[in-house]
């Protein structure tokens, strides 16, 4: 597959990204989380206005393949890799990698030295392969269900010599 195009999140993207988020969790996390857990997880997108506000409140980028939205990722507070979701039919085809590369570059450009992600079990290997190191195992409650994730951290390249902090 060709390298996906990337662009900033637009408020009009919220309904499409909410649907992509739901599909991604339902299909790609099925091996790691029960149906009830996935249902609780996708409830985060039930209120599309609130979901859109969450995306707008972070630095969110959208990946496009053949002009169609293929995935999205967000960087919150320049230190938290907050969200990374790919359309299930395009999983493992480079969309997530392109988004992760962009988020890491954007964080580095903002002088972030350490990037943290709360990786879902279904994403842990992806982040580990990118150099993220597990720090702690967590259990979070979402809509009455307990879900496990792992806090992972990646040291980003130090700023170039001569740059100021």
UniProtKB/TrEMBL annotation:
All residue ranges annotated as the N-acetyltransferase domain in the record: 4-157
Gene3D superfamilies documented for this protein: 3.40.630.30
Name of the protein in question: GCN5 family acetyltransferase
One Pfam short name: Acetyltransf_10
Any GO MF annotation of the entry: acyltransferase activity, transferring groups other than amino-acyl groups
Natural source organism: Methylocystis echinoides
Transmembrane spans: none
Domain of life, source organism: Bacteria
InterPro entries: Acyl_CoA_acyltransferase (IPR016181), GNAT_dom (IPR000182), N-acetyltrans/Recomb-assoc (IPR052564)
